[in-house]
Specification:
By secondary structure, the protein is mainly alpha-helical. It is built from 4 helices and 2 strands. The longest helix has 31 residues. The chain is rod-shaped, with a radius of gyration of 25 Å.
Length: 112
């Protein structure tokens, strides 16, 4: 039973850390979580967890999956708004009010 509770605590701890990172938008904190979770999950068969424990783990995994999907959707929306990651072109206007893309060659940016 001690082995089961240790595995359950470890999996729960990793999944809670994932949840906090996703909610905070701290994607760097997710780097090692997959390896730690996979390692703990590999010990599940030998741990002898109860059905309730396994259902609790499944609920945590489903919650984190929803958070990951929401994060991916948000990142996709930002990427789409930015035109696939390209930075918007600098638009300038001359003294007559005509729009130009970028800084005109040979022109100064201010009058003295």
């Amino acid at each position: 039973m001690a082995r089961a509770s240790a595995v359950l605590r470890e999996i729960t701890s990793v999944m809670e850390a994932q949840r906090r990172a996703l909610l905070a938008g701290d994607f760097a904190a997710l780097d090692g979580a997959e390896a730690r979770l996979s390692q703990a999950a590999s010990r599940l068969p030998a741990a002898g967890l109860s059905r309730d424990d396994l259902q609790a783990i499944a609920a945590l995994a489903a919650r984190n999956a929803r958070l990951l999907a929401a994060a991916r959707s948000g990142l996709d929306q930002v990427r789409a708004r930015r035109g696939g990651g390209a930075t918007p072109a600098l638009m300038t206007y001359d003294a007559r009010g005509r729009q130009h893309g970028g800084v005109p060659m040979g022109a100064t940016l201010s009058r003295r």
